[in-house]
Amino acid sequence: MDLRSRRSHRDRDLGRRPHHQGQEVMSHDNMPEEHKLPEAHDASHGHDVAPHGDPFADPGLPVHEPRRTDIDERAAQRAERQVSLMFIVSMLATVGFIASYVVFPIDKIIYVFPLGHVSALNLALGLTLGVALFCIGAGAVHWARTLMSDHEVPAERHAIEADDEVRADVIEQFKTGAAESGFGRRKMIRNTLIGSMALVPLSGVVLLRDLGPLPETKLDHTGWQEATPAQPIQLINMNTELPMKAEDIVIGSLTFAKPQGLTQDDEQFQEKIAKDALMLVRIAPEDIKDTSSRDLGFEGILAYSKICTHVGCPISLYEQQTHHALCPCHQSTFDLSDGARVIFGPAGHPLPQLKITTDEKGFLVATGDFSEPVGPSFWERSA
After folding, report:
1. 6 pLDDT more than 50
2. Is residue 13 part of a domain?
3. Which of 175, 180, 153 is nearest to 69 (CA)?
4. Distance in angstroms (rounded) separating the CA atoms of residues 21 and 364
5. Same structural domain, 129 and 146
6. Are residues 138 and 53 in the same domain?
7. Which domain holds residue 49?
8. Per-residue pLDDT tens for 314-323?
9. Residue 32, preceding bond cis, omega within 30 degrees?
10. Does residue 293 contact residue 353 with C-beta atoms inside 8 Å?
11. pLDDT at 212
């Protein structure tokens, strides 16, 4: 199709005859009625918003249709009861959230299809808090859609900064909106909303329970605290579950140990091993720089806490030539030949050391607790 043909088709689509030489172009006024474009009309303001024949005319706002609750007081009262019921359910769910802390023990496991085995406490907390928040949101939405004013009000775009007149107008509109919302007149909705909003923050207060009770001296001691020179505790190899002898540990080796009597069948095994885990190295006595550290060991065998003093990660990387132990989490590096002092990284304290010796059978034993609290530093570190 050539340019003239395309122009002819375009002119025909616009409702006018092709403009050939010697022919007059038909205007909108002398165009037949069936070819004229409809005039744009603003239904909300009752005046034309664009010139005749503008295909992109603003149709204006649709005619406002009242809702059932606007013309039927019984429907409005029913909606009010529905909104209030949602707020009441929110209050009950918040009470249930708080009660869950009392009813369900922290280690209670239940089977729920299709989730499987889950914590009863976590499930109860999630459901009750979810219902409490959902009902507040759903009640507010239902209130706005059924009882608050829904008249459409167009507004022209304006600068971000408002002048005094606009600010005064906004305040006036806020007051008008507050009056139209019925917040002051519909006391049932107001009181139940205030009640639900007042109770929900209590959920956060109850969560503070997880921060207690206070540790008191629990962070100062480990499972080795019961060891005494008269009743020492044997060191058990973490891999073989067998007592360890001094001759089993060679120079340059790294071995992990735990106190005698601690088994994986213990319900609190993970909690205890997080403090009791040992890291044993054997260094030639002449290479040990710190004399007090050498005295706590036995023939060059030194027992340090395996728990990093930064954030509590387990240390498992050892360099034989330099006697450096590296924490894989944040690269804190400890010199085990010099009292496990920190030579690099964010850790703030050396690794605590355990005093060890051998019993009459040659097994390695501990005669006391660590020299200082193990793990990350805390606000009342006692050493």
Report:
1. no
2. no
3. 180
4. 116
5. yes
6. no
7. 24-63
8. 998 899 889 9
9. no
10. yes
11. 66
Q: Whole-prediction pTM value?
A: 0.49
Q: Tell me, yes or no, whether 68 lies in a domain.
A: no
Residue 291 lies in a domain: yes
| 237 lies in the same domain as 318 | yes
Q: Which residues pair with 109 in a beta bridge?
A: 119
Residue 203 covered by a domain:
yes
Cis peptide bond prior to 114, omega within 30° of 0: yes
Which among 11, 56, 6, 19 is positioned nearest to 35, based on CA atoms? Answer: 11
CA dihedral 27, 32, 35, 36 (to 10 degrees): 60
CA–CA separation, 91 and 380 (whole Å)? 40
Looking at residue 30, its pLDDT comes to 53
Long-range contacts of 45-53 (CB under 8 A, 24+ apart): 52/28, 53/28
Q: Which structure tokens are listed for 128?
A: 């009750």
Strand order in the sheet with 333-335: 317-319, 324-326, 333-335, 341-344
Cβ atoms within 10 Å, residue 44: 14
Q: Which H or E run contains 357?
A: strand 353-358
Q: How many domains does the chain have?
A: 3
Phi, psi of 303 (to 5 degrees): -115, 110
Name the amino acid, one letter, at 200: V
Give the Cα separation of 249 and 251 in Å (integer): 7
Beta bridge partners of 356: 366
In eight-state DSSP terms, residue 203 is H
What is the DSSP-derived secondary structure letter of residue 300? T
